[in-house]
Amino acid sequence: MTSVDLDEVAGRLYALPPSEFTAARAAEARAAKDAGDVRLARDIAGLRKPTVSASAVNRLVREHPDDLGELLALGGRLREAWAAHDAEALAELTRRRGELAGVLSRLLRRDTGLSAAAAAEAEQTLDAAVVDAGAAEEVRRGRLAKPLSYSGFAPAPVPRGRPAKKPADSAAEAKRREEAETRKAAERQEAQNAHQEWVAALEQAGKEHDERAERVARLERKLAKARKRLAESTQRLEVAQREERHARQRAER
Known about the structure:
Layout lengths: L5 H8 L4 H17 L3 H8 L6 H12 L1 H19 L3 H26 L3 H16 L1 H9 L29 H82 L1
C-alpha cells in the first residue's frame, strides 16, 4: 500500500506549470505502480493536463489566497443579495466585485504572462466562480484542468438608489424556473463529467498504444538484427562446408 492518495498527488501536479505537468504525472503514476498500487497509478494517469488559463487560476489559489478568497466570499454574499432583491447591497457588492476582479486580473497578467485569449478565459472562470457556488468550490480547490463558464441566469448590477424591482412572476413560476435551471445545470455537469471520463480513457488508450507500438518496433529491430546475424552464420556455414568438402577430396587423392 502506498503512503499517498490521489488527492495528494493531484495537489502537487496542479501546482505545476502546464509545461511540467505531463512528465510529472508520468513519474507519479510510475511511482504508484512500482509501489504496487495499480489503481492509483491508473487514476493518476487519467488526470488531465491543465490549460494555460486553468493553470493560471490554480496559481492564484496558491499564491494569492487572500485576494481570491475575498472574491469568492463576496460571490456568496452577492448571490444572497440577489435572492433577497436587495438593490442597495447588490450595488455595493457589485462595485467591490469590480475592484477585486481588477486586482486579480492584474495579478494574472503580471505573474503568468498570459496571452489575451488565455487571460480572458481565466477571468471568465473567476466570473463563473462569483455567480455559481459549484464553480467557486472547483476554483477554491486549485485543481482546474480547463476554464469554467456559467451559462445560467447570473446576478446583474442594480444601480444604487434605485429600488429593486419586484419579480413579475409568481412564486410558483419562479420556483419552476429555478428547478429547470438546476436540472439543466445538472445535465450539463453530467455530460461534462462523461466527456472528461472519455477524454481520460482516450488519453490512457493512446498512451498504452504508443508504448506497445514502441515495444513492437524494438522487437522488430532486434528480430531484423537477429535475421542478419543468422544469414551471416548461414553464409559462414556454407563456406565451411564447401571448403571442408574440397579439403577432404584432396586428402583422399
